[in-house]
Give the backbone structure.
Amino acid sequence: MMSIFQAPKSNKPVAKAVYAFDEESGAKWVPLNKSFITLAKIILQAAAERIGVKGIAVTLRCVTHQGYRHLLLCGDKPNDANSAFGAVEEFIISNEDSLTPLHERFSQLDTVSVSMDYQGQRLGYLLATLPEADFVEQALRRPPRLIEAELQMVASELSSIITRYQTRYRAIFIYGDQNYWIGNSAALRQLDKRIEQLRDVTKPILIRGNKGTGKTIAARSIHCTRHQGILPFIESSCNEWQEGAAASILQALYAYAKGGTLYLRNVDALSGKNLHILQYFWESIKKDLAVKGAKEAAGIIFSVSRKHYSNAYDLNEWLKENTVELPLPDLAERREDLRDLVNFFVNEYTLSVEFDFTEHAWRLLEAFSWRENVEQLKRVIQKVALIAEEPLVTVSLLEPLLRD
């Protein structure tokens, strides 16, 4: 990231930005790595149990480049860019572990399949094998069209995961950080769907979440859902603005963000005067949208410092009237993700000794009230990584760190 705008008489930047790089760069590529395959298997296994089929698999178009396999998120027609990276091939992920080759387990007689598209392009196919030997009786009790409809829901779920991995790619290689959601809880899946629903919303989006719930991740996810290319994502925190400078700051930020997204954090920290300037600014943006259309304008995203924020001015009513809300779940609402998060941070911060937790320590982590959510969990794992000398972390080592 690079600073783009300095507040008057201050050396502290009030905004960070990523400019439009090559439109054909890695935003269209998702690594088909171990974590993606594991997550896909979890989704397929749950779907097989829910739908009542024997096996379920997804075939994905991919390309291998420099030893790494990536999903091919572009059109069916070969082009020079694809040829430069490598040959296009199919990769199959299944809920079943078997020595029999996957293509030998599917036949036209007992298989239901649907195509899987992503952002208007063919990505692959979902296939499900019926569980009964008497396929005629099975088809009468559960017609293939019903299974096809359920497979389309599975395809939608896998597409949400791909979108999240695109955001993850940008976080690592473009924004230069490790900010992306980890896990596959019901709360995260619902959040993925809600973000997808916000794709074409022209009103500003208000992200409501407590510290450590991923407000910046949510803003980037909305931006990535709306823009397949790498377009400007301009981020600024309102509590860093100098009094009296809001008008010039907003004008400059919006000019930089045109065609992309302007993300304003901590709008509940605005003074009464700066809030009125922001309100006037939005009224002028609405006129800009009406005249030039959304492509020439910039999407606006706000966030507040806490889910249940307080403000001495007229912010609450104005936000209710002029924004569409996106509430973020606390870690307590996505406890299914805690072990995935812990394992991720353990791998990230392990220094010399690789470690795990005893079952009692795991229970302590799962029962703990994480007031600052994932940020607090990350700090605890960092501390454990610094002092752990044994491969198993016990309750006696963990408890003092939770009290800090």
